[in-house]
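**Protein fold record**
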Amino acid sequence: MVRRIAVLLCLSILVMTSSCQVQNLVAEVYVVVEDSTVQSYAQQSSPAQTIAEATNSLSNDIDLVITQTNVLLSSLVQYGINIEVRKRKVDILSTNIINTFLLETTYIADSSAAKASFQSWLNLQNAYSTLNYDFAVLWTGFDLYGTSGIFENSITSFAAMCKSTGVSVMEFDPTARDIVATAKIIAYLLSSLNDGITSTYIMAIINAPDDANRWFYSNSSAQSIKEFVALPRASCLLSTNSASVKPAVTYATYTGSLLDPDVICQRSLNDSRSYMCKSLPQIYNNQPPKGNAVCGQIYCRIPKTSICTPAFTSDGMICENQKRCTKGQCSSYPTSSVDPNCLWGDQKTLDFPLIPFSGTCKPFLDTYGAANCYTRPINETCCNTCKTYNSGIPGCEYGDKSSACVLFTQAQVCPIYKNTLCCNYCRNYVGRRSVPEGGYPELTPSPQQNVTEVPVVGDYLQGKRR
């Protein structure tokens, strides 16, 4: 008790003078995962997982989410706040706490009603008295619809840390979006409001994948949190149950799939048919799909459309050989070697409705020709398969650039197109030493480069996951 009073006094002095030593604060969380999340995990995976596999994947991802949430919380240290989250307990249920939905839906819940249901469930379990947690969060697989008439991915009791009413309900995909959302609900519980409409920090009104500061709290948020933790009502953060655990997942020990870009897309869109769009003219700032260009956001194909939409990139995702994404930057990190021009292999599927074609890279190139590998979009999208067609001949790696070369004799076509469109057909051709008087005759029809047109990326999708 004497220590607690002394620490509270110190925290009060810290608010006014910043002269006191920074204290270590711990927020112990009771995590409840309902069955809707488990089922979503099992169904959105490709191939589909069993319930046991989905539960194991969830456990791995919960630890990663909390580990990376603590990384975001560490941005408060510069403001004199040292706080971390530890797991008080995790319960993965075989039933759903949320069981009432908006009319004519089976998966959209009113967010306020969902929070009330979770609070009632906690009360029935006598959970707060039994576990003595600092806050509780329900991770759901259902969509939350707010009282303001818009979808929202979480709802939280404001300034309720250290109370039995300190609860939050949050949609759980999970992706890096949920790491930001978890850091956000903790700030709400510590009395921080949203930042202004132009903010790109954690407490932005709406978090977007390309927010430059989504790994950090703003000065305004930090000051609100500092004032709250100095209050006597925040004293629970000064004592920690010995049973509470701080996950410390490293990229080497992590066995889940949250660093796989295709899985990120499947979870972001809640659809196992989605995948990372590897190359289209307008995405990744017209750069190859690697480096800093993929460390803020990646693009995901919306099934049955020609549209790719942004999703949150996970810190730790490989972005170059011996490099991983860290806070929006592609940074050096010891890892196994990968081909820097083919980090994740071929794009999962090629969907070209206008051709039409839907399938994998090999059937596409077998049908429309390896010459398509000369084009940047196909070379980046089918990087692994294109390598199997590569002859190693400089300038003629994928053979003739036109299928019309063989329609002519070598004497007709090779003097003009040997070093361009007909490099393979004319490879061993030895022509005349001089150009004939009057030049070479015009070929009809003349060879044209065979390039299969690819679709253009659509606009950012504004909407929900279903």
Remarks:
- Confidence is low (pLDDT under 50) at residues 1-19, 453-466.
- The CA atoms of residues 262 and 275 lie 5 Å apart.
